[in-house]
Every structure is written in structure tokens, then in C-alpha cells.
Write a structure and sequence with these properties.
By secondary structure, this protein is α/β, with parallel strands linked by helices. Helices cover about 50% and strands about 10% of the residues. The protein starts with a helix and ends with a helix.
């Protein structure tokens, strides 16, 4: 009798799990999903690949998997590191690459410049492709280049990448002894940096504060007249990494009416990940040192080694629950209207268990339902919060 009772309870539990998964799937694919950061342009160009071809398991993303994951709008990152010569020309090459993908697939993909374009693409069951410039160094200190990138379709610019510009200091430099200062010999925005922010506000180009230093962040908050975007960052209190936002910054973004799009990178979610990663790199120090002689940017060495030793790397990954913990934290601190998703797929070398690529976005919706979020709030998190900020940025 006891065995029958346990079997009955197990059956009920299984049935409830199945029903929740079905409910999550329906909600996910009826909602508008906007991901504000994906690095597949660089990954595809470097690897001689094309986004509109099946790329699993070499990448996190391809066009087919975007539909499998229910992605309605994707911001493609236009990026190069600080060592690139002629970064403005490289930015235009990447922009042309994304546009070529869309041109080859008019029935599946369209370039988008506005909120209306995103909703039009969703109605037509096409992927809305948008452009975000990751790193102010790509304008080469020339306001006309900023305008040109906007006219080419870029709808946000991250003011710095890890490298500072002469007019804005990065999180990496602001937290590193003897890190680069701006051209005025201090941290934060220069007078020209403030002009950049004001011109972006005027154009309708979102000011993205991922990667910037704290002083740059606060200087932007004084200079901007529009809501800001944090396209791919997490919570400092839960994971004290320089790329994450402290509580006062989170509250300031909310007060400004902006939005924080959560990054899926293990190192921004899990405070223990860096120690595990460092131990991995120490085991492969000889190989790492050789790679660093070829390219001094440590990220590329780590990507190479993570790819080479996948069995070791899988044990470094944190649980998916940590991503939801960061989301919960922002909701409790600032409100559900100020958080969204900025995956950083194809720009990171480690992701939580369960998130292996863009096809896994529905798992996040299921986890949100499990945590008790309403359908309305889930729709906000998946895309409507960003859409509000995007619309506000384009109001002249």
C-alpha cells in the first residue's frame, strides 16, 4: 500500500513537471525575446563560418537555432580588441557581414533599426537583426565615425571594451594599478566623452555601460538625457567581478529608467568560477605562455585552451540557478522593470549547465515560472523591458 502511494505521488509529480514545461514552452514562444549581446560575427569571421549555416557544436549560435530558442530580436556585437589596427574599418566589415546574412535569407531574417521593425519581424516570423558596437575605440576618436556607424544601423555603443579610450576609462583600467587614464589624466569621461554621450542621445543610439569603469558610469549618469543600457553584465554583490554592477549602480539604472541585461558567462555569475578557471590555466601554464606570446590578450589563450580540453572545462561550469539568482537580486533591489537578457553567446568560453547555446533560452522561461514569476513579468524580462528603453532612446 505504501509503495502504491509513493508511486501515485511520483506520477503526480511527473505530471506536474510535464505540465509546467508545456506551459513554459507556450509562454516562451508567444513572448517577445530580445537578446542584447551575441558575438557570433567575430566568431564566424575568425572561424571562416557563416551564421546562416548549421554550426552546432562549433558555436553557440546559428540562424536555425535562433528559431529553436524562440529568439525574436538579436543584437549582434560589432567588436574588436584594443590591438586591432583600423578598428573603424573592421567595424564596417562586421556590419557588412551581418547584413549579408540577412540579404541571403530574406524569408528568415531582416535588419531592424527600431521597436517597430522588431515587432514587424516578429509578426512575419523573422529574426530581427540589430547591431551593437562593443567598444568606443572603434570610432577612432572621431564624432563623424560615430554618426557613420549609427547611419549603418548600429543602435547601441558600449563606451569602452576592456581597453579605455582617450575619452572614457574602462572597468579593467579603473581597477588595475597604473591602469590607463583618460586624456585629461583622470578616470571617467572627458569633455569629449560627454559630447559623445550627448550625440548618442541626440541620434537615438543607446549608451551601453557594460565594460565601463565606475567613474565613467557615474559621469554618464550625469550627462545622459535618455535611459541607459547595460547590455551584458551581472550583480557585483553576488559575484564581485569588475564587470558587474554594484547595488548603487543598479538602483541608479532603475532611477534613470534604463535596463540591465544579464550576462550568461560563468565568471560573472559564480564567485568561485575564477579560482577553478585559474587552477585549470595553471595546469596548462606552459601552453598558455606560448599562446600569450602570439596574442597578449589573455581571453584568446583561455578560449583556445577551453576548446582544447572540453572534459576538464565541463567541471568548471556553475548551475543555471545562479543566473536566476542574479535576476532575482535585481528584481528585489530595483524592480522587475529593469532587467533582461544579454547572453554573450559566442563571446564567452563557459556557460552554466543547461545553457549550451541559443536553443536553450526556453529553459530560462521555465525556471522563471518555477520561481513564481507571473506571465506579465516574464514577458517584461524576456524583451518588453528592453523594448521600453529602446523606444525611449528613439524619442526625439
Amino acid at each position: 500500500m505504501i509503495v502504491k502511494k509513493h508511486l501515485f505521488l511520483l506520477l503526480l509529480l511527473c505530471q506536474a513537471t510535464v505540465l509546467l514545461a508545456q506551459k513554459a514552452t507556450r509562454l516562451h514562444f508567444k513572448s517577445l525575446l530580445v537578446d542584447t549581446h551575441n558575438d557570433i560575427p567575430t566568431t564566424a569571421i575568425d572561424g571562416g563560418m557563416s551564421f546562416d549555416q548549421p554550426l552546432h557544436p562549433r558555436t553557440h549560435s546559428d540562424l536555425q537555432r535562433m528559431f529553436a530558442g524562440g529568439v525574436d530580436a538579436q543584437f549582434f556585437s560589432i567588436w574588436c580588441d584594443g590591438f586591432m589596427k583600423n578598428p573603424f574599418a573592421w567595424a564596417n566589415r562586421e556590419i557588412d557581414t551581418v547584413k549579408a546574412w540577412a540579404q541571403r535569407n530574406p524569408g528568415k531574417m531582416m535588419m531592424a533599426l527600431s521597436v517597430n521593425d522588431i515587432r514587424k519581424a516578429a509578426r512575419e516570423h523573422k529574426l530581427a537583426a540589430l547591431l551593437g558596437v562593443e567598444g568606443g575605440h572603434m570610432i577612432e576618436n572621431d564624432m563623424q565615425n560615430l554618426i557613420s556607424l549609427y547611419e549603418s544601423g548600429a543602435r547601441y555603443m558600449t563606451l569602452t571594451w576592456n581597453n579605455s579610450t582617450p575619452w572614457a576609462t574602462s572597468a579593467a583600467d579603473e581597477t588595475t594599478p597604473r591602469g590607463a587614464l583618460n586624456s585629461e589624466g583622470k578616470k571617467g569621461l572627458t569633455a569629449f566623452g560627454k559630447q559623445i554621450v550627448q550625440k548618442m542621445n541626440e541620434l537615438g543610439m543607446l549608451v551601453d555601460l557594460s565594460h565601463v569603469g565606475e567613474q565613467t558610469f557615474w559621469d554618464v549618469m550625469q550627462a545622459t538625457t535618455k535611459p541607459v543600457l547595460v547590455s551584458h553584465s551581472c550583480v557585483y554583490t553576488l559575484c564581485p567581478h569588475r564587470r558587474n554592477l554594484k547595488d548603487e549602480q543598479i538602483k541608479a539604472v532603475a532611477k534613470n529608467g534604463g535596463v540591465i541585461q544579464l550576462n550568461f558567462y560563468s565568471g560573472f555569475l559564480d564567485p568561485q568560477f575564477e579560482a577553478r578557471s585559474d587552477a585549470f590555466m595553471a595546469r596548462h601554464k606552459t601552453e598558455a605562455d606560448s599562446m600569450l606570446k602570439i596574442n597578449p590578450e589573455p581571453y584568446f589563450t583561455q578560449v583556445y585552451l577551453f576548446t582544447k580540453y572540453p572534459d576538464e572545462v565541463k567541471d568548471l561550469r556553475p548551475p543555471l540557478s545562479l543566473l536566476l539568482d542574479h535576476l532575482d537580486y535585481i528584481v528585489k533591489l530595483a524592480g522587475v522593470d529593469y532587467v533582461g537578457l544579454g547572453s554573450d553567446f559566442d563571446g564567452v568560453n563557459s556557460l552554466p549547465y543547461g545553457l549550451d547555446g541559443v536553443q536553450d533560452f526556453p529553459k530560462i522561461t521555465e525556471e522563471l515560472l518555477k520561481r513564481g514569476y507571473s506571465k506579465k513579468d516574464i514577458r517584461k524580462i524576456l524583451g518588453e523591458n528592453f523594448m521600453r528603453v529602446f523606444a525611449a532612446s528613439q524619442n526625439k
